[in-house]
Amino acid sequence: SKRVLIVGGVAGGMSAAARARRLSESAEIIVFERGPDVSYANCGLPYFLGGEIADRKKLLVQTPERLKAVFNIEVRTRSEVTAIHRGRREIDVRDLVSGHATTERYDALILSTGAAPIVPRVPGAARAGHFALRTLEDMDRIDAWVRDRGAKTAVVVGGGFIGLEVAEQFHARGLRVAVVERNPQVLKPFDPEMAAHLHLELRGRGVALHLNNGLKEFDDPRADESASASVVVLADGTRLPADVVVTGLGVRPESTLAVAAGLDLGRTGGIKVDEHLRTSDPNIYAVGDAIEVTHAVTGAPALIPLGGPANRQGRTAADNIFGTASACPGALGTAIVRVFGLTAAVTGANEAQLRAAGIAFEAVHLHPNSHAGYYPGARALALKILFAPDSGKLLGAQAVGPDGVDKRVDVLATALRAGLTVDDVADLELCYAPPFGSAKDPVNLAGMVAQNVRAGRVRTIQWDEVAALDRSHVLVLDVRDAPERAGGAIPDSVHIPLGELRARLSELPRDREIVAHCASGQRSYTACRVLMQHGFRCRNLAGSFKTWKAAR
Ligand code: FAD
């Protein structure tokens, strides 16, 4: 019978172990985990800090005892694998409690060693009260520090997924929170105008958001800052005293063991694997945050440290070890996060990734309702899709809004995986009744808007092109109703509500191009169709006032 050893007992490792057992009752399966816990929900850690998950036990999805009883899997916690001897197919293991070292033989080895939080290399980084959040132990330390110290102020360094979740949860716990981000926007997987909606939400909730202003160093509190544990000093000299500091600067693949064993790494620093998740040694597989994957849209090597891929890859590695040739498709990086009242989700490539890969794209923005507007509770969401102008193939999608974001991006992620075009997306038959959606679902609408662009029925202009327009050659036309315009307008725009447009065409110049906008782009599309059929040159502002205003 096969002896399968697994290094790392959380997402990818335990998924591999459970699948291996289901495929083979006779295999010997041993999982080595250097921490005290296995199979815990690291994705749930932030929600314990804010009290949303009140019972810590709920985060422990499995225990070694139960894994033994149900799956006959041997789990050795506090056991660190210190070396791999590939020639003789053995690993060295150190028991971290007794210090005792042993050697174990394997037929197949799976590395699911995860990733390590990036630690800022700046003066003062090792002060008490500074934390990263990766493990249950980290969570316990943060929780105890905040409670014991009676912390009132928190600084989160890094506006990534985990940073924003921690910021939200600290706020829920009653702390005054600042978020520090070196880039001009939070959440790099999103394009800037989509992330801008989150900036408004964070600031609206009272979070101090410092963008374009990275961490310079940590300093001792001065006399007037003496109550705080640390002072976060930003690039521009701003001082942010804090009772607790959490850094969320991203992670790097935990590849120490693999490197020492001479396994190949990819250029991103992740362990190199083939589509069957085999490393450069055919008896060693690697999965999860530790590996480099290929981006399905751009073909570029990528690190996608997410729970879904880790779990599926664990399963795939076990399949391949037990004779079912199973391959992992390229990665889409589908991800979602809640930031207070908004949800943001993304799949596929964003504009920056497409540009870096030299892939031509068109973008459309829309702000459809989450369900039928006449049914109570409908809320607008910002939806963006990116597609190839020639083939119409979907390349990426992003959505931000209070409701209905997850299902739209999940449908679009499925469409991407299937290689669908915007025509296919326009035709998807999705479920509809007023409490759930609209007869033309936002996903259908995105496909239809893209179809109109591809067919040349309208040309679009993006939010970031407005400022540079030469107004001697271009007129910006606002076709919203008067009360909407009273709430703000693009400077130097002309106002003719859509309902009056046909009667007032004579007021518009024929020697200048017209850039039409409304609130979301829907009415201005109609305006463009009217104008174009009357011989005017016209472009529609994608996402219109809502996108332009959020991104400004
Ligand atoms: P891990 O789950 O990290 O497991 C690796 C394990 O290997 C670790 O326990 C480590 O101790 C052990 N190990 C490493 N080296 C050795 C060694 N030499 N010997 C023995 N043991 C070793 N993803 C999402 O998709 N959605 C989310 O909402 C989400 N939220 C998250 C929130 C937080 C706070 C964190 C930290 C992560 C979140 N993730 C989320 C990411 C997700 O948890 C990871 O992608 C996933 O856990 C990766 O699985 P893995 O098996 O590769 O690594």
UniProtKB/TrEMBL annotation:
<feature type="domain" description="Rhodanese">
    <location>
        <begin position="470"/>
        <end position="552"/>
    </location>
</feature>
<dbReference type="InterPro" id="IPR050260">
    <property type="entry name" value="FAD-bd_OxRdtase"/>
</dbReference>
<keyword id="KW-0676">Redox-active center</keyword>
<dbReference type="InterPro" id="IPR036188">
    <property type="entry name" value="FAD/NAD-bd_sf"/>
</dbReference>
<dbReference type="InterPro" id="IPR023753">
    <property type="entry name" value="FAD/NAD-binding_dom"/>
</dbReference>
<keyword id="KW-0274">FAD</keyword>
<dbReference type="InterPro" id="IPR016156">
    <property type="entry name" value="FAD/NAD-linked_Rdtase_dimer_sf"/>
</dbReference>
<comment type="similarity">
    <text>Belongs to the class-III pyridine nucleotide-disulfide oxidoreductase family.</text>
</comment>
<dbReference type="Pfam" id="PF00581">
    <property type="entry name" value="Rhodanese"/>
</dbReference>
<dbReference type="Pfam" id="PF07992">
    <property type="entry name" value="Pyr_redox_2"/>
</dbReference>
<protein>
    <submittedName>
        <fullName>FAD-dependent oxidoreductase</fullName>
    </submittedName>
</protein>
<dbReference type="InterPro" id="IPR004099">
    <property type="entry name" value="Pyr_nucl-diS_OxRdtase_dimer"/>
</dbReference>
<keyword id="KW-0285">Flavoprotein</keyword>
<dbReference type="InterPro" id="IPR036873">
    <property type="entry name" value="Rhodanese-like_dom_sf"/>
</dbReference>
<dbReference type="InterPro" id="IPR001763">
    <property type="entry name" value="Rhodanese-like_dom"/>
</dbReference>
<dbReference type="Pfam" id="PF02852">
    <property type="entry name" value="Pyr_redox_dim"/>
</dbReference>
<keyword id="KW-0560">Oxidoreductase</keyword>
